[in-house]
Design brief:
The chain folds into 2 domains: 1-115, 3-Layer(aba) Sandwich (L-fuculose-1-phosphate Aldolase); 117-273, Class II aldolase/adducin N-terminal domain (L-fuculose-1-phosphate Aldolase). Helix 4 packs parallel to helix 8 (190-199), helix 5 (144-152) packs across helix 9 and helix 6 (157-167) crosses helix 9 (220-242). It is of the alpha+beta class and 273 residues long. Helices cover 38% and strands 16% of the residues. The protein has a 9-stranded mixed beta sheet, with helices on both faces. The termini are far apart. Strand 7 (180-181), helix 8 (190-199) and strand 8 form a beta-alpha-beta unit. 42% of the residues are buried.
Amino acid sequence: MNKNILDAPFIKEMIEVTTNLYNHGWDERNGGNVSYLLDKSEVIDYLDPTKIVRNIPIPFDGEDLKGRYFVVTGSGKYFKNVQNDPACNLGVIRVAEDGQSVDLLWGYTDGGVPTSELPSHLMTHISRLSVDPTNRIVMHCHATHLLAMTFSHELDEKKFTKTLWQMCTECLVVFPEGVSILPWLIPGSIEIGKATAEKMKTTRLVIWPQHGVYGAGRNMDEVYGLIETAEKAAQVYTYVMAQGGIKQTLSVENLQRLADAFGVIPRAGYLNE
């Protein structure tokens, strides 16, 4: 007999992170989505992989991920409700052999489906796995101050990154590769999925102007902390600009000293912008 899936560490992690994202104000209503790549060995203690609840078509060729397992937030689901009813708001899926659909193994008990951003998530997982096979998390949220910065700051990746680095000393250490920025694109589209996945080959943070941010990494703590750090820097930037603008900041020389001290390599050319 399988163990109770509500006791599974990956379900508990999803409950915790969606609750924190909601409480931070980064995932209002049904805004935001999270996907977590699972090993089969993690799943089989809690679910019988031969028992498929239903098959769900997806608008994307996921052949590169066929047979892979994920727990994913549902389409139209409010993050505030996940902790009270995880079985309705989350789903454990497996990319089917045809690559054009997913097998639902658990969840979405009201007949729901995975997030409409599933193609973007799957494309990003493919992209990140090609760079780092240990990457398992993709997280999208509407981090308030990063979103605000896309209205007030020049949308140049180098300049945007350097501003974030200069707002909080830890930023260069946490994301030395910088952040990427897309043009405004329709959410849930294949176009935005492809563009995000391409950027994810070089950065773990991708800004969607006037919308939010995508983060990726090895585990929940890493990705949540990555977004949290960039968001804190954007919050400081917001306060600084409201207080009359930048009078002094971290110099390029000090940023380089910081990188040397922590053994990180800033993205080439970004300190010169």
